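Bug report (template v2)

What were you trying to do?
Predict the complex of my protein with phosphoenolpyruvate.

What happened?
Run completed; filing so the output is reviewed.

Input:
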Amino acid sequence: MSGPAITPWVVGNWKMNPMRADAKQLVQELKQLLLNQNIEESKCHIGVSPVALELQSIQAQFSDCSRSISMVAQDLSRVAGTGAYTGEISAELLKDSAVECVLVGHSERREVFGDTPAVLNEKIKNALNAGLTVIYCVGESLEQRESGQAEHTVLQQICDIASVVQPEQWNKIIVAYEPIWAIGTGKTASPEDAQAMHAKIREGLSQISPAGQGMAILYGGSVKPENAVELAACPDINGALVGGASLNAESFYKIAQAFANTK
Ligand code: PEP
C-alpha cells in the first residue's frame, strides 16, 4: 500500500564545524551548484545545521540563494522563554532568529551530554510550543543491534515522546533514524535494513498518530553520494541527515539531487 507523497528533506548537520572562512566557502560553493542546476523546492527540502553562533550569519549568506535553505539548530534549551540561564538558547530565541527547525536527541547529545528521555521531552515540548519543527533522532548502538534489540530500542525512543507531542503537533515532527554504529564510521546500514527499520518506525508512528503515514523519516549514518541513490529508492526513506558529507558542497548537493530525482 503506498502512502501519501512525502517531499524529502536533506539536512546537513555540520556539528562543531567548520571555521568561519570555511563555512563561507561551503555556502558559496553550494549556492553556485544550485544556481547552475537548481533542485526544485517541491522535490526536496534542503536544510543546514551550523553551530548556533553562526545560524544568523549563514542564513544571511543564503539570503540570495536561488532557492530556500532551512536553518536548523543543533540543539535547544530544556528551559523555555528568556531568563537567567547562562549559556542556554531557548526555542523562543531560536524562533525569534528565524530558525525553523531543531535537532533533538542526536546520539552525540544523548551519549556525550547526557540528554535523557526526560530532558529530550522538555526540549521537544518547548520547540513545538514555539512553532519549531523538530528533527527527532533515534537509533540503536552496535551492541543493541548485535543482541537483537535494535527494533525495540528505536520503537521505545519513538514511544518516549508520545506523551509530549500533542495530536495536532505530529506534523511538526520529522524522525531521523541514525544507527549509532553508522555515524561517522563510514559504515552504512544496507538499504534493506534501513528500509525495514523505517517501515517499523512508520508503523509505530501510525499507531500513535494518523499523521504517521505522511511523516518524513530520514536516514542518517555515513550517507554519501555513492549510497544516496539506493537509500532514496527505499519507499520509507524520505531524506537524509548528513554529517561528514555535508561539509563538502558537491557531496551534499549530490545527495540532495539523488533524493529530488528519485522520489
Ligand atoms: C550525523 O551525525 O547526524 C551523521 C549522520 O553523521 P555522518 O553522516 O558523518 O555519519
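What did the reviewer find?
Residues 13, 178, 183-184, 220-223, 241-245 surround phosphoenolpyruvate (CB under 6 Å). The mean pLDDT is 96.
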